[in-house]
Design brief:
single chain, 216 residues, alpha+beta, Elongation Factor Tu (Ef-tu), domain 3, 3 domains, six-stranded antiparallel beta sheet, two-stranded antiparallel sheet, binds flavin-adenine dinucleotide, FAD, BaiN-like_dom_sf
Length: 216
């Protein structure tokens, strides 16, 4: 997926694990997934991004603005996260802000977090004010940027076919329109999420189409 800005693209190569990625349009979240993703030189990719890309494509095709939100601490709600940061500040009050971030974020994300939260990296933890702590929590829970496009079909994992399923007899895979023409796999207007569903569809429909064609 394409999106973000130059600052975000500087994170290219960074992989995030155990995050919650969600997408919204018109103020409503339309999809979300927990797992692994990565930053690229022009946006984001990786398993959960691929899983959610169809919904994003559809929203963009409708002309809607789409926003990605990464929750970097999905297992902690805001209250728990605030408490965790508070504990850290009490235990190590002299720690610089940049060192505090090391306990919360992957190394490659620290400079970006400093820029987004606008807090001096040398500031001592104990002197962080309410707004600065809120800015940090906001970054950890609502790391948000606009998605402007999806990659070209050359990079797609599945194409959503061409032949509508209501034009195919599902007990033989024969065309309802052209007798003795059989369809299987990717050419059918049907797709599933990543995880083997599309290959299974290709194997099952291929077997049925081949078997049906052999017995006519
Ligand atoms: C990078 C990538 C990763 C994927 N990962 C997964 C995954 O993890 N899980 C999953 O379920 N699915 C995955 N898929 C999708 C899955 O591979 C496809 O849905 C499935 O292979 C489709 O099978 P098919 O036989 O219909 O088409 P294809 O596998 O595309 O086979 C079509 C064949 O027809 C040949 N061909 C094309 N034109 C002609 C012609 N004119 N004459 C003769 N031969 C021709 C092609 O060379 C090709 O060998 C992935 C796809 C890609 C691209």
């Amino acid at each position: 997926m394409i999106g973000g800005n130059k600052d975000l693209w500087s994170l290219s190569g960074l992989s995030l694990k155990n995050v919650e990625l969600s997408f919204s349009a018109n103020g409503k979240t339309f999809s979300s997934e927990f797992g692994e993703m990565l930053f690229t030189h022009k946006g984001i990719s990786g398993p959960i991004v691929l899983k959610l890309s169809r919904g994003v494509y559809e929203q963009l095709a409708m002309g809607n603005k789409v926003w990605a939100n990464i929750d970097l601490k999905p297992k902690l709600d805001e209250k728990m996260l605030r408490q965790r940061i508070h504990n850290e500040l009490v235990e190590t009050p002299k720690k610089e802000y940049q060192s505090l971030l090391k306990t919360l974020l992957p190394k490659l994300l620290i400079l970006y977090a400093i820029k987004i939260t606008g807090v001096d990296k040398h500031k001592q933890s104990s002197t962080l004010n309410k707004q600065e702590i809120s800015a940090l929590i906001s970054f950890l829970k609502y790391f948000c940027f606009e998605i402007t496009g999806v990659e070209s079909i050359k990079k797609a994992i599945v194409t959503h076919g061409g032949v509508p399923i209501d034009e195919i007899n599902s007990s033989s895979m024969m065309s309802n329109i052209v007798p003795n023409l059989y369809f299987a796999g990717e050419v059918i207007c049907l797709d599933g999420p990543t995880g083997g569903f599309n290959m299974q569809k290709a194997f099952s429909t291929g077997y049925l189409a081949g078997f049906s064609a052999s017995v006519i």
